[in-house]
Design brief:
The chain folds into 2 domains: about 5-230, Spore Coat Polysaccharide Biosynthesis Protein SpsA, Chain A (Alpha-Beta Complex); about 235-300. The longest helix has about 35 residues, at about 270-300. An 8-stranded mixed beta sheet has the order 7-5-6-4-1-2-3-8, sandwiched between helices. Helix 9 (about 235-260) packs antiparallel against helix 10. The protein is α/β, with parallel strands linked by helices. The protein is elongated, with a radius of gyration of 25 Å. It is built from 10 helices and 8 strands.
Length: about 325
């Protein structure tokens, strides 16, 4: 019988943690009753440096259900992607299957059974994919769908409308542990593992309680990190833009020479200033973009630990 670990990254989730614990324990009990997972399956909460009582509640849940609830306390706030990675790497040696899910319960826990069924059919990775985005605001729906399409255009392999709700087998986790990079974007990294994959589809719900931990600023940062971590196309675009500007400059020079020799020279103060500002802006943009890539190289070569675990229960 396979041992399932449900990994839940948490940051300031005191309002929802007990509700989440109860819902996931019910999932475990149901799957155990059907003989699909072993009796020692568990939920692993990862406290990502929360400033509220999240860790105290995790300890409380562990005391009440020591066989079902386990916890990892990180030494500080490292962000969702690192916290989830810490949980998956910790669970790797304790389980045969892992399912990662956020604590807000917007992802439908009922499809975990379908994920497990697909694992038993031979799938190593099963992605939870949203059917539609009716619960999102118009702005979030447009930006999210645009994000996935833009990532595909930039050459980053992702699963459309999939976040971090997924099942991974033990051998997929072991392979995932071999990826040591610091600039993490799991939605692009996991598809690189390969193996047999499949998807389950569900309707995303409203958040049970609390506030979203992914405001627009963090979403944009995640998008840029994903693009710059998995694609060099932006630098290719810079080269293309440079060639276009050179061609435009040559055409402008030809026009200027023709105007000079035909005596149709016109004072061009405005056009000159606009050209200088335009080219200066393009140069600064290109330098900044290249600087972002150099910065990522700088972070990677230092090879610092991605997270520090303070306590495991």
């Amino acid at each position: 019988m396979d041992r399932l670990a449900i990994v839940v990254p948490c940051y300031n989730e005191e309002e929802v943690l007990e509700i989440c614990s109860e819902a996931l324990r019910e999932v475990l009990s149901d799957l155990q009753g059907k003989g699909k997972i072993s009796e020692d399956s568990f939920v692993l909460f990862v406290n990502d440096g929360s400033k509220d009582k999240t860790w105290e509640l995790i300890e409380k849940e562990h005391e009440k259900y020591p066989d079902k609830i386990k916890g990892v306390k990180l030494a500080g706030n490292v962000g969702h992607q690192f916290a989830l990675t810490a949980g998956l790497i910790t669970a790797k040696d304790m389980c045969d299957i892992s399912v990662s899910i956020d604590a807000d319960l917007q992802d439908d826990v009922a499809v975990i059974e379908e994920m497990v069924d697909k694992y038993h059919e031979g799938k190593d990775i099963v992605y939870g994919v949203r059917k539609k985005r009716t619960t999102d605001t118009f702005f979030k729906r447009v930006t999210a769908e645009g994000f996935y399409k833009f990532m595909s255009f930039m050459g980053v392999k992702t699963v459309y409308n999939h976040a971090d709700f997924r099942l991974m087998s033990k051998r997929a986790l072991e392979q995932f542990a071999e990826y040591k990079e610091t600039n993490l974007f799991l939605r692009g990294l996991v598809p690189l593992i390969g193996y047999e994959t499949d998807c389950v589809y569900y309707d995303r719900k409203e958040r049970v309680a609390g506030e979203s931990k992914y405001p627009l600023k963090k979403m944009l940062a995640l998008a840029f990190n994903g693009i710059s971590s998995f694609s060099v196309k932006p630098i290719t675009f810079i080269t293309t833009l440079g060639l276009i500007i050179i061609i435009m400059s040559v055409l402008a020079a030809v026009y200027a020479l023709i105007s000079y020799f035909t005596g149709h020279v016109t004072e061009g103060w405005t056009s000159l200033i606009l050209s200088i500002w335009f080219l200066g802006g393009v140069q600064l943009l290109c330098i900044g973009l290249i600087g972002q890539y150099i910065g990522k190289i700088y972070i990677e070569v230092k090879n610092r630990p991605r997270y520090n675990i303070e306590k495991v229960i």
